Amino acid sequence: MLDRVVAGIVPPKHHIALRSEAGDLRYEECLTRAGFDGPYTIAYHDRRPHEHRVAEAAHGFTLPVAAAARPLAKRHYRSQDLPRRGGPAVDCRVPLLFNDDAVIGLVQPDAADPVYFANADADELFFIFHGGGVLRTMLGDLRFEQDDYVVIPKGLFYRFLPDAAPQRWLSIEAEDIHLPRKWRNEVGQLRMDAPYSHRDFRRPTFVGPLDEGIRALVVKRGGAFHGFTLERSPLDVVGWDGTVYPFAFPILRFQARVGLVHLPPDWHGTFAARGALVCSFVPRPVDFHPEAIPCPYPHSSVDCDEFLFYCRGNFTSRRGVGPGSISHHPAGVPHGPHPGAYEASLGARETSELAVMLDTIRPLSATAAALAVEDPGYQDSFIAGP
Q: Interior CA angle at 264 toward 261 and 266, to 5°?
């Protein structure tokens, strides 16, 4: 969560009457975390927000299923070769890698969501590789653009309205997506030495009561999709306050840290989650010791799988990858730069790469969709010639 926001009309105290100009009582809806012990938002509806009828779930994206077990190896998946499924985001998400803590996939929507959707299993993080649009929620509209991260809290219903331009988004479902706690001071404010400030984040623009004519809600819970019909528009909020809301963060606003010698990836930590850390690699100067080796060193991280989504720029440690490439380096065997990259980085003063990394504690499994776009020669590409 970022900070407290107040928008629209709210009463002077929680849990007291808020009435319309006609004298009608309005209804609170509390969106809470960790039961009632964590962050929360209170929204004020014109009508009862909990009137739903059970219905068929006519929409929902593909859920992850592991492909057959394979030998431990470095993997490269060319997500740019995935067939474009299209349709609304609620239907066209394709899972690629997953474990019990996170699901990583690709979304290429070309239509607005025809229903409201709430993920009650996990928070959601999208990286907008290409495209842009509007995320619509009861708390307001959130505009997003290429190179933005979009964070949506668990349980908040929404619909995506993508622009007409081609869309390609990286999606991550994970529990408790938040800003790493090491970047905050004791009152929750982002520290002055954090890699971003509160000013870098975009919050929703409050719209007020709105009726789009949509009366269908799909909820993902327990790894299944559940349908409901609504009595009225759920976008009848007149005001809200709290710390649970969606937000956007442009990756290029990340303030990368530079050291005398190479810094470990957690200095690039942008978001944390249960069992995972999301890092942003942005164009930046590199290490300034006269004998520094700027290229990432070979390492055996026996507690983490490493997922890397390449966006653009010159990826100095890898060859054969390009925009949309995904590398997966599993725990258990060393990984590092391709032959020649380590030596060639000597004397470099900057890097132009843009990439999103996810380190996970639990091993990642691949789906059949990932295997269909795998580069079979990647493992042996790390073997230097004579």
A: 140
* Helix (H) or strand (E) segment spanning residue 370: helix 368-371
* CA gap 280, 265 in Å, rounded: 9
In 94-223, DSSP assigns E strands to 94-98, 102-107, 116-119, 123-130, 133-137, 140-144, 148-152, 158-162, 168-174, 216-221
Residues 6 or more apart whose CB falls under 8 angstroms from that of 335 comprise: 74, 298, 299, 300, 306, 329, 382
Is the pLDDT assigned to residue 317 strictly greater than 80?
no
pLDDT tens digit sequence for 68-95: 999 999 999 999 999 988 899 999 999 9
Burial class (CB in 10 A: 0-12, 13-18, 19+), 111: middle
Q: Do residues 319 and 356 lie in contact, with contact meaning Cβ atoms separated by under 8 Å?
A: no
Number of Cβ within 10 Å of residue 23's Cβ equals 6
Is residue 202 within 8 A of residue 143, CB to CB? The reply is yes
Q: What six digits make up the tokens of 335? A: 């990984």
Contact 193, 187 (CB under 8 A): no
Contact 349, 285 (CB under 8 A): yes
DSSP E strands: which ranges in 153-246?
A: 158-162, 168-174, 216-221, 224-230, 237-242
Measured CA to CA, the distance from residue 224 to residue 57 in angstroms comes to: 9
